[in-house]
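Sample pair:
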Amino acid sequence: MHTIMVVDDDPIIIDGLCMLLKRIEPTSVVLVAKSGADALGILLEQPVELILTDIKMPVMDGLELIENLRMLHFQGEVVIISGFDDFELVRKALQLGASDYLLKPVKSDELERVCKACFERLQSKRYRSLALDGQASTN
């Protein structure tokens, strides 16, 4: 079971993404935030493995959210989902640490591919962490 957060200010997008995620990852818990600031508040209460965030939102946009996540040493994955096909936005998001960048409207197979890749990276990080912990305790 995974915990995923959808961060978007458009209720139609939120509903659509939540529906797709429940089909792709039926056992996942899907949380919703309407801005980057709301997302940070939720993260203080509950751990999240994957964040799917829009870029353009009021209060705190997706890029500002990623910057704040870096300062908080967030260990999960972040995927930008945006209606803007702008190379500079993509580049900035990836420089800040986003795992991927999907264009709206998001296709189900594309979202599934990206989610699986994110969860595989998280699993790999966990195994590496366990291996390093095991080595440290034997030294």
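The first helix runs from residue 11 to 24.
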